[in-house]
Amino acid sequence: MKLLTLNAHSWMEPNSKQKMACLAQHIAAEQYDVIAFQEINQSRFAPKAPVKDDPYYFPAKERPNIHKNNFAYVLQQTLLKMGTAYYWAWFPCHMGYRLYDEGVAIFSRHPIQELHGFVISSKKPYFSQKRRGVVGIEITNKNERMLFYSCHLSGWQDKKKNVFLQEWLRLESSLAALHPDQKIVLLGDFNASANRRGKGYDWVTKVSGWHDTYALAPFPKGKFTFPAYQTGSIHQKQQLRRIDYILCNYKPTVLSAEIIFDGKDTPLISDHCGLKVSLETG
Question: Using CB atoms within 10 A of its CB, is residue 14 exposed (0-12), middle (13-18) or buried (19+)?
């Protein structure tokens, strides 16, 4: 089973249309089973998209308005024109810069049987960019029911009110209630650096016991998913970090793991790199 996660940065990226075309070509060539996206936005003032007639769209219970320039919708339509069909869903998390609705999305080559989308932040209004949410799907692969969630969490904070920990515990609690004794895969931007001890990564992998597929791969390729990078006029001079993960609540057999869209074998298309993982299933 081939998986991909990418914080796409969407229309906030310079040359975003060209980068989307590059992403679409890559997906069409790789034929991933499940893809998780974060920071998927749409203009709040764009006309609505005709998703009622889209047999591949699976709406959340709240039935959010999908606009014609929703990044996930445009990408899915682009892939359809290329002969690659994906079932998909989008969950809005917050307003961005008063111009965008921003959220998380998930694509699947397998039909979506159930959809779960919910907020993991505590009492944050929609206009707050600190409001976080997740979207999850249930699919069947090789006669096995599996769950996949696209996640975007806040960073670890060494203070009494640790937002990352609050979000993580709320996510874990919700998953335990919704999916007891089921295999779950979390994909996304966790804002938790793998080389910082005693913080978010250690809590997720050591305290909660989730398995980092990159760390389980026999020969993981690449080192960092958050590179020093220039976005428009903003230059991010931040430490190189691995903060994007594909995590399992069971110990999978990982065939390969590779950080892509890093400017080496594949071009940079976002302020994050992507993570590509192949799991043995069935």
Answer: exposed
- Torsion sign (Cα): 273, 205, 33, 180: negative
Task: List Cβ neighbours of 139 (8 Å cut-off, separation of 6 or more).
Answer: 34, 108, 110, 111, 112, 113, 145, 146, 148
Q: Looking at residue 194, what DSSP letter applies?
A: T
Give 43: exposed, middle or buried? Use CB within 10 Å, 0-12, 13-18, 19+.
Answer: middle
Which whole-number Å values give the CA distances from 142 to 139, 145, 261, in the listed order?
Answer: 10, 8, 29
Beta strands in 11-143 (DSSP E): 34-43, 87-96, 100-108, 114-119, 133-141
* Mean pLDDT of the region 259-281: 94
Query: What pLDDT, in 10s, does the model give residues 31-87?
Result: 999 999 999 999 999 999 999 889 999 987 778 899 999 999 999 999 999 999 999
Rounded CA-CA distance 118/26 in Å is 30
Residues in the chain: 282
- CATH fold of 2-280 reads Deoxyribonuclease I; Chain A (3.60.10)
CA distance 121 to 33: 29
Query: Which pLDDT belongs to residue 240?
Result: 84
pTM of the model: 0.95
Answer yes or no: are the C-beta atoms of 221 and 273 closer than 8 Å.
no
The domains of the chain are located at: 2-280
Give CA–CA dist 124/121, Å, rounded: 6
- Under a CB-based contact definition with an 8 Å cutoff, are residues 138 and 113 in contact? yes
